[in-house]
Design goal:
single chain, alpha+beta, D-amino Acid Aminotransferase, Chain A, domain 1, Mth169, Chain: A, 5-stranded antiparallel β-sheet, 17 strands, 29% strand, binds uridine-5'-diphosphate
Amino acid sequence: MDDSRRKLYEGKAKIVWEAGPGEAGPGAEAARTYIVEYKDDATAFDGKKRGRIGGKGRVNNLVSALLFDLLEREGVPTHFVRTLGDREMLVRRVKIIPVEVVVRNVAAGSLAKRLGLEEGAPLARTVLEHYYKSDELGDPLINRYHLRTLDLAADPEIDRMESLALRINDILGGALEECGLRLIDFKLEFGRTDTGEVILADEISPDTCRFWDTETNEKLDKDRFRRDLGDVEEAYEEVLRRVTAGAEKWRVRRRGARASGGERPAHARGEWPAHARVFVTLKSTVLDPQGAAVENALRTLGYDEVKSVRVGKFITLELTHLSPERVDEMCRRLLANPVIEDYRFEVVPATAPPAGSPPPGAPTGTGGKGQ
Ligand code: UDP
């Protein structure tokens, strides 16, 4: 490490340095970057529990680097530039938005406690939460109204953080599954660049994610420290081993994809205009008076074969580009009421995709069936 470095900030698990001369590469790059050093210090329960996890700094730095790299390749902008050794990475300068975005696939931790759910219960749909980053207040759970009232982020920034968080969940969930890790939940932080772009920052590691073994559900993350489960260092090292092996597979697959005709086709990258068709119906457990009235009327007209009728909504969308994830988000946020309604959608390219791609009209994304 360069002695002339200036420490900008020291947190519970990381130190942020201004790069010393020559550390960050050419001058222009140094001016736009910081160095993040990952520590072995561990804290939990708002700093009330303290300790050290040997090798944690190295594991968190290397796991974060591999996962940031994967996300970048999948088109998610992150602050990661490159590693500078086992415990350090060079990152783009950002101003951290003081909001923690938590994504959950399975009930655990504070969610299980707050909602009275059994830890390990799968969630019918992904849960996204915001916490206000404030040590004095103990990082309280907040919603979009609080975010706006406190002026923590503008509406489009909140939208972007949420949609990036859901995309990150999709990418990481699949990639980690291949490494034998179930992504139970995780916390993300975002930052604003000089130009105001919102990008992923902070870290993605066993400190900030819950990883359970896919076969045994053994906890391989910071819960081993929080709950005194033992074998803490071993669990961190195991995550690094599995993610490193996974990263090799992900790279080989990308090389294979390039060799067999380049990057993913344009339509798969979401660069083609598209149509979406969304079908919304009341959940089967919810009374449907309109359906009942139509059913009655059909029977009165002599259509005795009608066993039951449910009335729903059919919505069509014209899109500038094809993005099933965004349509799913639209359904969850506006088009359907997830408390009482199920939804289903299809997204199809509006014009002929390039040669070698599915023919026009072929479904390119379905899903989002509400539970
Ligand atoms: N988390 C984090 N930093 C925090 C709080 C939570 O990285 O300050 C992560 C935690 O590791 C877990 C997810 O966010 O993967 C959800 O944590 P939860 O709200 O259940 O809190 P906890 O049980 O850690 O108190």
